[in-house]
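Sample A.
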Amino acid sequence: MNRLTILLPAGLMALAGCNGGGSEPDLESDEARHSYAVGWQVGQNIQRSGMELDGNAVAAAIRDALEGQDPALDQEAMQAAMQAAQQKRMDEQRQEAESNREAGGEYLEEFKAGDGVQVSEDGVAWKVLEAGDGDSPAAGDTVRVHYHGETVDGEVFDSSRERGEPVTFPTDSVIKGWQQVLPKMKEGGKWQVVIPPEMAYGEQGAGPAIGPGETLIFEIELLEADAE
């Protein structure tokens, strides 16, 4: 994402959204169509980010800036508003992380109590579904795997199985939980793996699909231990 996209998305999204209450935009000219295309793309990015904005207020601010008008809020007021919004988001993220950690911890404890489950010192737990009889990857090897990933509430956040296409990557390029289990697996093996947040994406999460403090559940099948 370039700097222009970072600076302008809120206003462009709001300007596009505010058309719902008025006339449809005239998209006959190349400039208008280009403007709409940029606004649509940026609006989608903001929608995925989960940012909550007042479209009317943002549209007014964009128009004032484009027309060279004085802002309705001074710099101090705008800075305070930005800081308040940031603090609100941090508080919400902290609460979400606590809730996710509690749910994930309960799931992990139940999983660990199951037959045949092994646990690393860092809390990564796994159960061997199929042992496999091939080689094991060494650190830094490139592997080819199929996987299916869910949160503890059953939401699928990523799945090469569903896409029908295995993935290839170096073992040292993935989350810590995967780095722990992959060298223990053998080609042809399939494991169920539960990874606590500190060995996954931590307090930040990863986009809208994986929240802060999320415990992750994977089914991993090692197809090839050294795919180079």
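Sample B.
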Amino acid sequence: MKDTTTLPTNLLSGCELSAEQLQQVLSIAQQQKARPQAYQQLLAGKSIATIFEKPSLRTRVSFAVGMQKLGGQAIYLDEQGQGLGQRESIADYAKNLSCWCDAIVARVLQHETLQELAKHASVPVINSLCDRYHPCQALADCLTLQEQFGSLDGLHLVYCGDGNNVTRSLMLYAAMLGAKVTSVTPADRAIEQSWLDDINAQAGGKAHNATHFDDLGAVDVLYTDTWVSMGDDTPLQQVKEKFLPYQINAQRVAQLKPRAVMHCQPVHRGYEVTSEVIDSDLSLCLQQAENRLYAQNALLSMMLSDSCAFAAATDLRNAS
């Protein structure tokens, strides 16, 4: 029998997961959310190091609380001053953490830092955000969509604003699960064609770029994020003129008639989205935030628990 709890050693770009593995993570997340008591000792005795070169609310709290709910612990390492590689080499940092912790979860400025950590660590390395990708957010988003619609297959998901790390990961996982995904951005902020080509090679031509909202056809979900990525100190007011045509507001909602609106937060109200929309019944942003915990816990469970413990937790859930 195939061991469905086995995932790749690391999750750096998100591409490490197959479509089958991605669906397994989401299914286990739903199981753990429904019956958390069955899994509360799954990672007993396990520890993860959580590294932060950038500020965090949802990532820091969801990993810390999530590990506690699984019986383990998360150790917070604040690297927002000098950053990794200054006080000691990234290689030595990774090797030392591997002596004590069962995984390294890193929120970093540069994707190359993750690659260097993974090269020298002897435990799994998980990307909790970098300049290129945000796979943990995309897992939570897909879990939210699956809860809301039953399946992503056939949904038209439209991301609007600035093409960034969230956009890349969202387009990848949503397309892998059968959604049509369109990124609507200014031409100079569009997702690179090579990334779309990679997605479409896996998902059969479901990812597209656009520069305006005309001719999108039916839209099921509108998704947006900040216009200035974390770590960029450009004032939002400075880019407002460029991105204001991509704002999600009452007029845009009336035009496209989405069934849901998503935002990974933090929300800059009056910029990428208006309060009228983000506080409406269409908004899924708090459900997305909640699901960071469950999607990440499923990922950690599959990467860190032994198969016997995982099977026992599943048996307990089924018995109850």
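B remarks: The chain has a mean pLDDT of 94. The longest strand covers residues 47-52.
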